[in-house]
Amino acid sequence: MSASKLYLAVVGVGGVGTAFLSQLASLPFKLRPTLVFVSRSSKQLYTPSYDAVSVSDLQASTSKLLSLFELVNYLSSAPGKAILVDNTSNQDVANAYPSFLRKGISVVTPNKKAFSGTLQLWNDIFDAVESSDGQALVYHESSVGAGLPVISTLKDLVSTGDQVTRIEGVFSGTMSFLFNSFAPADGTGDGSKWSEIVAKAKEAGFTEPDPRDDLNGMDVARKLTILARLAGLKVQGPDSFPVQSLIPKELESAKSSDEFMQRLPEFDGEMEGYKDEAAKAGKVVRYVGSVDVAAGKVKVGLELVEKGTPIASLRGSDNLICFYTKRYGANPLVIQGAGAGGEVTAMGVTADLIKVVERLR
Amino acid sequence: MSASKLYLAVVGVGGVGTAFLSQLASLPFKLRPTLVFVSRSSKQLYTPSYDAVSVSDLQASTSKLLSLFELVNYLSSAPGKAILVDNTSNQDVANAYPSFLRKGISVVTPNKKAFSGTLQLWNDIFDAVESSDGQALVYHESSVGAGLPVISTLKDLVSTGDQVTRIEGVFSGTMSFLFNSFAPADGTGDGSKWSEIVAKAKEAGFTEPDPRDDLNGMDVARKLTILARLAGLKVQGPDSFPVQSLIPKELESAKSSDEFMQRLPEFDGEMEGYKDEAAKAGKVVRYVGSVDVAAGKVKVGLELVEKGTPIASLRGSDNLICFYTKRYGANPLVIQGAGAGGEVTAMGVTADLIKVVERLR
């Protein structure tokens, strides 16, 4: 059966969404569903008769704005199976996944919010998938490590009966870049202070517009929540385990990103302290996340890491994820590479979409 | 739909086959096809009415032996879709894949022979898949790197439109073990000679029964053939590009594995030479395979590798595969871990089977 009898809605056309639409356009016809709905924050484009639409017409669209509830109805009335691709990081859209899935609409997304939100939302999503008997699918590879095969690998390990004992790694491209620059394992650093490195990364666009959104560790905590749940732990949410924020207590009250950046140098001594402590032990300081499955413990924060280990040797803004399992024994299964960026994030979304199309058509 | 309306034939119950059957037995009912045929070299077990069979009855079976041609007919007459799991490394079974696929029977296998044989066989297999319109599938994750997500990752990169420029790595657990022991990057080696390390590895079961089957490089060449073809190169076969054999010319005529092992020490000086040459340049010697996609070149052999790189730092018998692509830029997507062993090879097979069941049911 041709994929053109499958109907596609794409929510969000920012960096990831734009790259995704471009990858979608290059798919062979038989893998490409018909795009019938596309939206950005204040614009939507669709027709009542489910005609194919083009994102280039979105800006000029006069389509009446549908609520999420109305979008569920619109897609569930399509003349074939429908797929929602959510390229936002919006919590409201995430909260609506169970409604889409219960109506037989599959969901593909890099949005972490649904899978790292409440355990209730997680259960609602996977209960809906389960009871759909293969009609409503959910794929979210890019919610951890962008296009790196992290979610799919963990799912394969679990579904084939391996025992995952520990997951450990560097889960933020921004944190990776900051620490690889601040304390490179090969000693090639230029001695820049922590605040200087954060400022440089901000200017280069390697951090969120407000760097505090990276430094608070919540992005990493969300990813660890997702992995811990896939490994079988009933984690309540990203604030239910220890997460070390790199926003100094005294700066939590800073009113703006600018004020924060201005005062950050006051705390360079503290970060230098970590670096020196690590150096004395022949180690380097890194921002690490880990899931100890047996002990049921998740944690995120600074760790002193042995030089020569894969985590210490990371370069650029690479992510690195180690799966320790019963079958793999002492040496983990390791996945490493760029874990952020529009193109590689979109790749995970497009690859997921292909899998959904292959299963539904 | 329940997977019990899918019919499964398992050929080969050696190390991988036994581990696979044990993983299969642990799958949830809805993912577990009905096992209707199981065989080892001289025994087969099946019933004319496609009843479920158990491998524990194989030894005592009196079923009349079916030829491959007869097996194709048996499975294509099953009252539902059928799947062949080939856990052998047999060329004849591999040659029959197109016959199975053309009759709508899906194939899941760790057997490298089909995908690294003639280009004609490769084309016959994928033409049959293509023209089945999603009814006959072929999955072969464990044909490279056992259960590591190598094939699936490369397919995702290609199918989403990334340009793979170079694939490089250590593709043999045996070669990895031999060189990590012979010339460890951290200088912890015990000074053992090459022939001593090969002998120790043979005793420990880390090599094929005849170590020449590892040392000739053909296993690595077969894997590179598969990856190069998936990346788009029309490679004629594993003997169509340079493969450096570690069997000394003078020993090619050795009549037995014993004679070979007895005379191998005569060539310890040569291997020591490579090691010293590398050490002088601050490097280590490793057995590396690479595909230069742009230049259309594949090669396999000894290389002097910079210390501190992932390849030089490998431990134990780990494999390591680097994908350099346009999207991933300067730092490759890297996958690392055990690339051999019954349990992890079977894991790739079982994970593939689950994907086939999810698509067919």
Describe the 3D structure.
The structure is a homodimer of 361-residue chains. Chain A has 361 residues and is of the alpha/beta class. Chain A folds into two domains: 7-147 and 343-360, NAD(P)-binding Rossmann-like Domain (Rossmann fold), CATH 3.40.50; 150-338, Dihydrodipicolinate Reductase, domain 2 (2-Layer Sandwich), CATH 3.30.360.10. Helix content of chain A is 37%, strand content 19%. A six-stranded mixed β-sheet of chain A has the order 3-2-1-4-5-6. In chain A, strands 9-8-7-10-11 form a five-stranded antiparallel β-sheet. In chain A, α1 packs across α14 (342-360) and α7 (173-182) packs across α8 (194-203). The longest helix of chain A is centred in the C-terminal third of the chain and has 19 residues, at 342-360. The first copy, chain A, is globular and about 70 Å long. The interface between A and B is large, with 48 and 48 residues. β11 of chain A pairs antiparallel with β11 of chain B.
Class of the largest domain in chain A, according to the CATH hierarchy? Answer: Alpha Beta
Strand order in the largest sheet of chain A: 3-2-1-4-5-6
**What integer is the average pLDDT of chain A?**
95
- Gap between N and C termini of chain A, in Å? 6 Å
- Find the structural class of chain A using helix and strand composition: alpha/beta
Number of domains of chain A: 2
Oligomer: homodimer
Query: Which segments of chain A are poorly predicted (pLDDT under 50) over 5 or more consecutive residues?
Result: none
Topology order of chain A in helix (H) and strand (E) letters: EHEEHEHHEHEHEHHHHHHEEHEEH
CA-based gyration radius of chain A: 22 Å
Query: Do you know the CATH architecture of the largest domain in chain A?
Result: 2-Layer Sandwich
Q: What is the β-strand count of chain A? A: 11
Which geometry of chain A do the CA atoms define? Answer: globular
* Major interchain interface with per-chain residue totals: A-B, 48 and 48 residues
Q: CATH superfamily of the largest domain in chain A, please?
A: Dihydrodipicolinate Reductase, domain 2
* Portion of residues within helices of chain A: 25-40%
Distinct helical segment count of chain A: 14
Please name the CATH topology of the largest domain in chain A. Answer: Dihydrodipicolinate Reductase, domain 2
Query: How much β-strand is present in the residues of chain A?
Result: 15-25%
**What is the makeup of the main sheet of chain A?**
6 strands, mixed
Family (chains A, B): Belongs to the homoserine dehydrogenase family.
Transmembrane segments (chains A, B): 6-25
Pathway (chains A, B): Amino-acid biosynthesis; L-methionine biosynthesis via de novo pathway; L-homoserine from L-aspartate: step 3/3; Amino-acid biosynthesis; L-threonine biosynthesis; L-threonine from L-aspartate: step 3/5
Domain Aspartate/homoserine dehydrogenase NAD-binding (chains A, B): 12-135
